[in-house]
Specification:
Blueprint: E1 2-7, E2 13-20, H1 24-29, E3 41-46, E4 50-51, E5 60-65, E6 71-78, E7 85-86, E8 92-97, H2 100-104, E9 112-118
Parallel strand pairs: 2-3
Antiparallel strand pairs: 1-2, 1-9, 3-8, 4-7, 5-6, 5-8
Length: about 120
Amino acid sequence: MIGELYDARTGRLLVKRLVAADTLWASTVGFLGRTRVDDDEAMWFDGCSAIHTLGMRVSIDVVFVDRGGVVLHVAADVKPWRLWVARTGARSVLELAAGNARRQGITAATALETRWLSRT
């Protein structure tokens, strides 16, 4: 699915191109092989509390989100080839371009809202 990501409290658009990793292929591939991740794109992994960056070529920000859409933790500038990046209690994981969580003001306790627009 394709959607957008908003700050649930202010209504401000945070990410214009949000992709749901809602198939086995999408969740396996993610941003693997990419040489860059644009500031206006992100990937959402639902039902997930951990990711890896094995095979990745770029650093990313990893945002761990609870069941209510509230950010638990932001792992900034996670380098490629990390075996395990996890957060207990997370229900979803958001992957962004490195530094974009800070630029968008996404911190622990930020409430996020996904708005799904279409299926891919």
